[in-house]
Amino acid sequence: MAKPAKKAPKKATVKPAKKSAKSKKRIPAVALDSVSVEKVVEKPEQANPVISPSELNKPLAVCPVLPADAEKSKKEKIIVKGYFADERVLLENCDAARELFNTSCYGQLLDDGKLQISLCEALYLIERGKIVVNDGTAKKAKPLDFESFLSKARKFEPNFWVRYCVYKNIRNRGYVIKTALKFGADFRIYDRGVKPGEDHARWIVYPVHEGTTLTWHEFAAKNRVAHSTKKRLMIGIVDDEGDVTYYEIRWIRP
Q: I need a labelling partner for 20 at 20 to 30 A (CA). Which of 62, 127, 169, 180 fits?
């Protein structure tokens, strides 16, 4: 009898790989209140401003992931050394310090070549790893970390943390922000791409904690300062989480 034919072996089947789940959308690290005061146009030339407080109240964009080469070059950046000098910080006379002044408009260059920066500017640069600030000029003076510098700055400015929250928020958005003591305000803000000396500042800003109470007399005085300096008045309201909401105030004529 003929032997039955052998069955052909079954072919191995490869199951398709499961599709990976879609990557979740990244949420911005900082989400700011989007409430702002409705603008009142007083003069025709003030209509359609280039930048408005509503733009400042928008959430910050998520920072993209840097490639390996960019991360490497970032680590190789030179850290500028300086020391705490009462109500200011002095940075050493070096090219990296002058770069901070020329490129990003930090501080003021002195006759001896050192760069003088404000306490808000210093804490911001410490947080970003750009500078190291020692507690004085003595050889044994130790570098101040973020918390130590903040505690020291509060001794000179009780409202320092509220002011720093506004300063940091504005800087992170790409604006140049400088002190405005001669205008009777905390800060002055320039449009994007404008450096001090190239054009006048657009706003003067008063940082205020959300629990602070202002009298009508104080409120009117701030408006008069802005009006006399031909700048727009903006109030930065800081909550307990450090988030900032901006309100622009203008005169209206009945």
A: 62
3-state secondary structure of 199: strand
Per the structure, how many domains does the chain have? 1
**Cα gap 168→118, rounded to integer Å:** 13
Closest among 105, 76, 78 to 94, alpha carbons compared: 78
| CATH number of the domain residue 142 falls in | 3.40.1350.150
148-176: average pLDDT: 95
Whether residue 13 lies inside any domain: the answer is no
Segment (H or E) for 203: strand 203-209
Q: Would you please indicate which residues are annotated as catalytic (active-site) residues? A: 190, 200, 231
pLDDT at 5: 52
What pTM, to 2 d.p., does this model score?
A: 0.71
Q: At what angle do helices 146-156 and 119-127 cross, to 10 degrees?
A: 170
Token pair in block for residue 81: 């050394």
- DSSP result, 67-85: PHHHHHHHHTSPPEEEEEE
Q: What are phi and psi of 39, to 5 degrees?
A: -75, 140
Cα 178 to chain centroid distance, Å, stands at 12
**Pairing mode, strands 80-85 and 115-117:** unpaired
Residue 2 covered by a domain: no
**Res 153: pLDDT:** 95
Residue with structure tokens 């929250």?
165
- Segment 196-225 mean pLDDT: 90
